[in-house]
């Protein structure tokens, strides 16, 4: 069995539209009308790299209607272990939700799980940041009316990213990690 490295991060998606530059006729500024609501979807994802044969890439995502804490991080790590064989090396940022007793206990009970941490304030090293960039660009300039529409858009977007080795490889290569993919 081979080992897997999984680059993990979290992000949030609000019902408030993310507005990016768009084309419009000169003098006609596009206007996004929406109801101001602070509802959001929190997401945790991991870009996996398998080192067994062909350096296979994968994307794993879980969506939540509340903030992500220790419980959700532990659930995501267990989810990874159900899908990936062999040792799993999870690389995380230094968030408080990635440290503490629940994660120490999980690591103690699951010896094939290894947790490592990025240096402080180094998001440029995490390929999962590229996944968030792709997802937010895809959903930009949209105006979901409720959480169910936002969830549907997120699920479609993550399925599209996960199904594209080219996009996942781009996320890894755009990071400031030393090159390790062919």
Output the structural class.
alpha/beta
Instruction: Determine and state the CATH class of the domain at 48-174.
Output: Alpha Beta
CATH superfamily of the domain at 48-174: Ribonuclease H-like superfamily/Ribonuclease H
How many H/I helical runs?
Answer: 5
Question: CATH topology of the domain at 48-174, what is it called?
Answer: Nucleotidyltransferase, domain 5
Task: Supply the CATH architecture of the domain at 48-174.
Answer: 2-Layer Sandwich
Helix content: 25-40%
Share in β-strands = 15-25%
Mean pLDDT: 88
Structure description:
By secondary structure, the chain is an alpha/beta fold. It has a domain at 48-174: Nucleotidyltransferase, domain 5, CATH 3.30.420. Helix content is 34%, strand content 22%. The chain has helices at residues 70-83, 101-109, 128-139, 147-162, 165-174, and strands spanning 4-14, 40-50, 57-64, 88-92, 113-117. Strands 3-2-1-4-5 form a 5-stranded mixed sheet, sandwiched between helices. Helix 3 (128-139) crosses helix 4. The longest helix is centred in the last third of the chain and has 16 residues, at 147-162. The protein is globular and about 60 Å long.
Summarize the structure.
The chain has helices spanning 70-83, 101-109, 128-139, 147-162, 165-174, and strands spanning 4-14, 40-50, 57-64, 88-92, 113-117.
Comma- or semicolon-separated keywords:
globular; 182 residues; 5 helices; five-stranded mixed β-sheet; 34% helix; alpha/beta; single chain; Nucleotidyltransferase, domain 5; 22% strand
